[in-house]
Amino acid sequence: MTVDELKALVRSIPDFPIQGILFRDVTTLIGHGDGFAATVALLAERAQAMGAQALAGIEARGFIFGAAAAARIGLPFVPVRKPGKLPVPVLALDYALEYGTGTLEIDPDAVHTGQRVVVIDDLLATGGTALAATQLLRKAGALVEDTLFVIDLPDLGGGERLRAAGLRVTALMDFPGH
């Protein structure tokens, strides 16, 4: 399938979660067998070209795409979790959100010093969560230079923010607006 065909599988929902937001819902893409398989294949191909030695997915939809892409190319998958989900001592990082703070955690044994890890998520908006995931993985010793998304919302500035932090940003598709 072409990227345009995949893009057509993403559902747009007006006024969610609040008035004035046009939500880009990947549920319909995931629910389309051929579309999901094609998306995973494209992500895996790009991650491999980046020299990935492991893929890290951000909870929750980054797990779906990241784990599938990692399995496709035989790489380890590193889950970047919300607090309290891992049964071992964790590395944690608090980060600023638009309204408040968030926390991400990883198992410090999930990556090796110098291991080239590519961060994968479904959607890039402001870039705050992807940047925090990158910082957390680096704290664990990983080499993180690339981020990979299914969707970029470039009007929200996340790509610019990640590039300003020295990261390469790749997205399969983008949508204007919020």
Automatic annotation (TrEMBL):
Q: Name one GO molecular function term.
A: adenine phosphoribosyltransferase activity
Record's subcellular location: Cytoplasm
Q: What is its EC number?
A: 2.4.2.7
Q: Which CDD domains match?
A: PRTases_typeI (cd06223)
Matching SUPFAM superfamilies: PRTase-like
Biological source species: Novosphingobium anseongense
Domain Phosphoribosyltransferase residues, every copy:
54-142
Name of the protein in question: Adenine phosphoribosyltransferase
NCBIfam families the record matches: apt, PRK02304.1-3, PRK02304.1-5
Q: What does this protein do?
A: Catalyzes a salvage reaction resulting in the formation of AMP, that is energically less costly than de novo synthesis.
Q: In which pathway does it act?
A: Purine metabolism; AMP biosynthesis via salvage pathway; AMP from adenine: step 1/1
| Similarity comment | Belongs to the purine/pyrimidine phosphoribosyltransferase family.
- Assign the protein's first listed, main location to one coarse class: cytoplasm
- Give the main EC class: transferase
Q: Does the keyword NAD apply?
A: no
Keyword set, alphabetical order: Cytoplasm, Glycosyltransferase, Purine salvage, Transferase
Query: Which gene is the coding source of this polypeptide chain?
Result: apt
Domain of life the protein comes from:
Bacteria
Q: How does it assemble?
A: Homodimer.
Q: Which reaction does it catalyse?
A: AMP + diphosphate = 5-phospho-alpha-D-ribose 1-diphosphate + adenine
Regions crossing the membrane: none
